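PT: before anyone asks, these are the final sequences, not the draft ones from last week. 565 residues across everything. Please model them as a single complex and drop the result in this thread when it's through.
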Amino acid sequence: MSEKTVLIANGQGFWGDSLLGPKRLVSEGPLDYLTLDYLAEVTMSIMQKQRLRNPELGYATDFVSMLKEILPTCKEKGIKVIANAGGVNPRGCLKAIQEVVKELGLTGIKIGIVEGDDILDQIPELMKSGETFKNLDTGEGVEQVLSRMSSANVYIGAKPIADALALGADIVVTGRATDPSVVLAPLIYEFGWSMDDFDKLAAGTVMGHILECGAQCTGGNYCDWKSVPDFARIGYPVVEAKADGTFVVTKHEGTGGLVNIDTISSQLLYELGDPKGYLGPDCQTDFTTIQLEQDGENRVRVSGIKGSAPTPTYKVSMSYENGYKIVGTLTYTAPDAVAKAELAAQILFDRVALYGTPIPEEDRFVEVFGTNVCYKGIVKQSEEPAEVLLRVGAKSQNKELLNLLGREVAPLITSGPVGVTGFAAGRPRPTEIVGYWPALIDKTKVTTTVTVEEV
Amino acid sequence: MAKVQLMDIAIARSGDKGDGSNVGIKARTPAIYQFLKKTLTTEMVKEHFKEICFGKVTRYELDNLNALNFILEDSLGGGGTETLIMDAQGKVHGLALLFMEMDVPDELLA
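LR: through. Structure below.
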């Protein structure tokens, strides 16, 4: 048996994660694959809007500027990059990357894209063919949001990404691939795993789940935070993968952070539902079969993972426009900080009503921070906080009404109760509420395509 | 028996699941896990979060990790993208659970 080891890291846990992650990962230790996760449910809807304004946009532009910084090192060391940064326009992302490669004066770089996850334009046709897109959580019919739908993407699996690697791609960009898929794909390619070897696919899925939030498995967001050394230089996770599906989670030598059974277990529990039936596009994974074992300092060995056949459907992530929201903040100080904050909120809603249109009670929002908002009913409230943060706002279909509310926050400073400060952030503005609509689609109705181009 | 907070005997992590959250709790020893598996019920968790969680609480067991996973439905004021509350994704629900007090046999704390 070959003792081949493949090194896979994740340098971006979400869109907006530290740029230090990928930059340090490619320079501070050995690596074969750098994976990056950019997409969340809301992201696709933002990207659809960007593409409507400019047909060349609609992907994670941050990814392209970051790539510009790390690409020379990746080329030199032979590190391949896989990212779901394509958003709703992987082809636009491809063009932008090609330009970056040319600007850097590099040649012989193959860029692959995976398309086919974006089904927004095909929804009417798909519904005619029998797809219902019922809400997976509530069972409601999709008809009520159809006219307001702003994005619809299928969570695709690892196979097309692995195909792009097989075609020689050095960089692979996808649309809405699942987070674990970008990690599972290089294993399928490197070890030649079959798409019906479900234990192996499950192992790669667990690897992806551990890596998908970046440093959240290496000491970030960990209960025993006092035991975590050097947070500033926290090491992003690196996995040493073997062909048999076992792997070691670690981080580069000399980096900060911590890898132990507790940090890995914590991440395994993150956003977990039924542990026995973790659904993915390529397999179902049984999280109760995962065995963890400390394998030296900052090394955890993972083994024993069992999987089974996937369902005949893909998950679809849809988003729709659902009105607007606004939140403004003001700080109130003692004495009577809480009573004054609550009064200020009431004054604000009364003043908005004086313009002519009151905001209905059920659309109003008041949170007095400092009164155990996060631990409501759990931790004893201090009798009289010296200061509280008033968060006051509303939801509405009427954007202008919310603009009025935003306008009336600052005047509370000079025409409301005493002991108020902290308006430095300026006037709050309404933002769109993006409704999330999870659904399913028959796998046979989805076609993915792979394109690889060389610069 | 000694009265302890769960944070003395366990760690936790939470995140959003639609309009609810999941709270994973991992016991610090296998013996404490066996104790929690027997005693930490969905009713207790529901009561603990009575002003935060307005839906059903479901419990799953992960013997391999010495961990329990609780799903708290309707606990985010409308869901990750729609809610106005500060903790829109239930990020601190894990720590919130660790504030629960329990009577624990002395030998488990040795």
